[in-house]
Each structure stands twice: as C-alpha cells, then as structure tokens.
Design brief:
The complex is a heterodimer of chains A (208) and B (283).
Chain A: H1 7-20, H2 28-64, H3 69-80, H4 93-123, H5 133-152, H6 161-204
Helix pairs in contact in A: 1-2, 1-6, 3-4, 5-6
Chain B: H1 9-25, H2 36-47, E1 53-59, H3 65-81, E2 85-90, H4 95-110, E3 118-123, H5 127-134, H6 138-141, E4 166-173, H7 177-186, E5 193-197, H8 199-202, H9 206-210, E6 216-219, H10 220-230, H11 236-274
Parallel strand pairs in B: 1-2, 1-4, 2-3, 4-5, 5-6
The chains are: A mainly alpha (208), B alpha/beta (283).
C-alpha cells in the first residue's frame, strides 16, 4: 500500500466517496459534492466558451485582424440576448432563424445520403454472394429484420394474416435490438464504476 | 425464492462492489477475443504510410474517461509507434484538459516533440460546422493551436490542408458525434474515419461499419482491451476486463434469480387463489 501524497488525488477520492454515499441515503457530504460539481463545471465551461468562442472566434478576427464581417456576427450574437428584455425579445428570433436555416441547409441532404440512402444500399445486397455462409446468413437476417420492422410500423392496414405474422417478427427483432442496447448500457455503467475503483485502489491507495 | 422480491438492495450494491474490487486486486487474466471492427482499425493504421497526418478528436468529457481514456491512450501509442503526426482537438469544452493531458503524457512516453510529431488545436464550438470547414481548410477552423501559435509555423503541418491530406480521422466520443464524423468527413469529403465510443453508443455504429462509412470502431472498455491486445501493450482496458466479466456474471445471476423469484411469487399467488387462500377482503 502506498498512499498518494498529492492533495488533488485526496480531494478527488473524498469527493468520489461522497458521491457513493448517496447509495446509503441522501446526506450533507453528497450535497456538498453535488454543489461543487455544478459550480466547478459552470465556471470551467464559462471560461472555455469565453476563450474559444468569444476571444478566439470573435475578438481576434474582429479587433486584432480588423475583419468587419465579424461585426455582423457579433450583432447577431448580441440579438440572442434580447430574450432577457420582454419588450425586445422578438429580436432574438433572427439569430435563431439564421442558425436553424443554416443547420437545416447543411444537415438535411447529407443526413438523407448518409443515414438513409447509404444504409438502404447496404441492405439491398445479394445474400448468396457474401463469401461465407455466416456472412450470408447475417445479411439475410439483416434484410428480414429491416423489412419486418418497417412492416411493424405500417399502420394503414390491420395487423392480421401475413402482415400480422411479419409484424410479429418485426417486434421480436426490435426486442432483440433493445436487449443488445440494454446490455451495452449495463457494460458502460459498470465500466464507469470500474474506473472509479481503479482510481481509489490505484491512484489513491496504491494497491494496484 | 419468493423472498428475492424483498431483497435489500444494499446487498446488490455490495455484491457489485466486491465483484469489481476482488478481480482488480487479484486479476484472473481472462483472454480477450478481438472483433473485426477493432482489427480493421489496427490493420488500417499498420498499412498507413509512416508519418501520415492523423486528426484525433477527443469528443468526450470527464464522466466517461473510464471508457474512453484507455482507447485514446492505445490509439496514441500505436500512432506514435507508426511515427504518425497527430493533431488533437475537441468538440466539447470539457474535453480540453483531458485531451491535453493525454496527448502530453503519451507523447512524453514515446519521445515525441510538440509541433513536429503532435499538436493540440483546442476546442471549437459548433461541431458540425467545424467538421465541414475542415474538409476545405483546417486553418480556417483553427488558425492557431491552443496556445495561439499560427498553424503554418509548425513543421508537421506542411502539406496538411484538409482531410485529403490526412491518413485517418479518429473520433473518441460518448455522444452521437461519430455518426456526424461519418456523415460529414467521410461521406462528403472521403476521409477515413475510425471511432472509439462508449458502449452505450457503440451499438449504433455497426451499420456504419458494415456500410464502409467507418473503418472500424472500439466499443466500451472491451474495445480498448481488444486494441491493447493487438498492440501488445496492456493498459487499463485489459486490467479492467476481469472486473467487467465478473460483475456481468453477478448481474446476470441477479437477473435470473430475480425472475425466478418473480415467477415463484406469481405461482404462489395463483396456487393460493385456487385453494381459497390469499383472497382479497371484500369491501
């Protein structure tokens, strides 16, 4: 055992234990840790946004390099704060409109291309020409899964007969997907706990 | 078994804690099987020409370092072994300190020099706009590095203008950023994109790997352990896998016992109803 001599490690260890103490019950140590987290995060984010966005992306090009195009951006940015004044709050809609229009303009076509057309192409393949039996079966299951899940969400006809059977396969496929997703989530959460224990046992107590 | 329903939850907390602590203190050494998603990235980096420029975006914050730091460290070790020129950046404000520390630490271990072998570009707001503009000119998004030095003054940036001049783009993320990197950097500009993602996000990445939009991806701590196995450098990924396996077995056991307890309670309720016991009082 080799206890860490660093005050920062001790502080982090105490705050970690304060976080874990919520499993017992809500208590003052947990509250202190919670408020510190919120306060420190807010301060850290404010500095990062101010330095990276306002200083580097506005002050430097506008004031230091004299690029007046950025004056228009500054005005649009300031208009967003008009929400704080009820009589002038309508002004804040202009920067929002600009942002939504630009965002939709560059994201809609590429989203359709990347997430719909490209994925459809991968589904429309010859399952008998996949190189191996395993790959062929996998492609076939993918094809069946996509079609039956789409049929499950087809509500213009009653789910009876062949449509009912297909939608049942669709819901089984969805359940398998949800199960896999939940399994991954459990794995993710356990990893976070492992990380904390590695820190407590290794960096703090020196057992690892 | 019916008593499982009233089990004190603190027993489960202690069970999970012991199933993690014991394997960490006394490792078992379970082997890690490497999946094709991970092997594809390793093979791609091995086949890249030496000194290729690689953009590495640390799109995660402190909450997920347990999953993503081991991946980032493994990627950096491999890239520095291959003498790649690494440009670090982040699209999340909380990623600045993490990226900077990890880049410095791994560069120091590998003996890499700032500005010649690696660079830290810092944080840029509005990720999608940044991804798009870097397809035209990196210097338009990052005119300087994090510390204010002009990009064109660094020797490693000679000949690096956009994705076209980069061997690989790596995104380490706990959010939906990997899909956006695939959508913009790969689909629009043809960049090769590899991903290290938290396990929660990894499940959404299989279609992107199948479609060729991603070179490959590392999912959760298991992905990090797989990559460490491939580069033969054990790190926190491999060290954490014993604890991960044992704790999963404990959770599976609890789920099975819980379901048996639930079924037993239901069965006893039915049996009680059929023999006239357990009747609810009539108002």
């Amino acid at each position: 055992m080799h206890l860490s001599p660093e005050p920062g490690v001790w502080l982090a260890a105490i705050l970690t234990l304060a976080g874990f103490s919520f499993l017992w019950k809500d208590n003052p140590m947990f509250k202190v840790m919670e408020h510190m987290l919120v306060g420190v995060s807010a301060g850290y984010y404010l500095v990062q946004y101010a330095y990276s966005a306002i200083f580097k992306k506005l002050y430097v090009p506008l004031v230091k390099q004299g690029n007046l195009l950025f004056a228009g951006c500054a005005v649009l940015g300031l208009m967003a704060f008009a929400r704080l004044f009820p009589k002038r709050s309508w002004l804040s809609r202009y920067p929002v409109a600009f942002y939504v229009a630009a965002g939709a303009g560059y994201s809609v076509p590429s989203t359709i291309q990347a997430r719909v057309i490209k994925q459809m192409q991968v589904t429309m393949i010859n399952v008998f020409d996949q190189g191996s039996l395993g790959a062929g079966v996998s492609s076939f299951l993918l094809f069946v899964g996509v079609i039956t899940v789409l049929l499950y969400f087809f509500f213009s006809a009653e789910h009876r007969g062949p449509l009912g059977a297909a939608s049942k396969i669709g819901i089984v496929t969805l359940m398998i997907g949800f199960g896999a997703s939940f399994g991954y989530t459990v794995m993710s959460r356990i990893t976070l706990l492992i990380g904390r224990f590695q820190f407590l046992l290794g960096d703090w107590l020196g057992f690892l | 078994m019916a008593g499982m329903k009233g089990l004190d939850r603190t027993i489960i907390y202690w069970g999970v804690a012991f199933s993690i602590v014991i394997p960490l203190l006394w490792p078992i050494g379970f082997s890690t099987e490497v999946t094709s998603q991970v092997r594809d990235i390793h093979r791609f980096i091995e086949q890249m020409p030496e000194s290729s420029a690689v953009l590495m975006s640390f799109d995660y914050e402190p909450a997920t370092i347990a999953e993503l730091d081991p991946m980032a460290a493994a990627f950096l070790k491999h890239l520095f072994q291959r003498r790649a020129r690494v440009m670090g950046m982040t699209l999340l404000p909380g990623g600045v300190g993490l990226a900077e520390n990890l880049l410095r630490q791994e560069a120091a271990i590998a003996g890499m020099e700032y500005g010649r072998n690696w660079l830290f570009l810092g944080y840029i707001p509005d990720g999608t706009a940044a991804m798009l503009r870097m397809g035209e000119d990196v210097a338009m998004v990052f005119p300087t590095d994090q510390y204010g030095t002009a990009l064109d003054s660094f020797p490693m940036m000679r000949g690096v203008k956009s994705y076209r001049n980069m061997g690989l783009v790596i995104c380490l993320s706990s959010t939906a950023m990997p899909q956006l990197w695939a959508q913009y950097a790969h689909d629009r500009y043809g960049a090769a994109v590899a991903v290290g993602a938290t396990a929660v996000e990894a499940v959404r990445l299989y279609p992107y790997h199948d479609s060729g939009q991603l070179v490959g991806f590392l999912g959760g701590l298991k992905g990090a352990a797989e990559y460490e196995t491939l580069i033969q450098t054990p790190g926190d990924g491999i060290r954490g896998m014993d604890a991960q396996t044992i704790s999963h077995l404990f959770i599976v056991m609890m789920v099975v016992l819980g379901n048996i307890g639930y079924a037993a309670t239901k069965w006893r309720g039915r049996a009680g109803a059929s023999t006239g016991r357990n009747h609810a009082p009539v108002a």
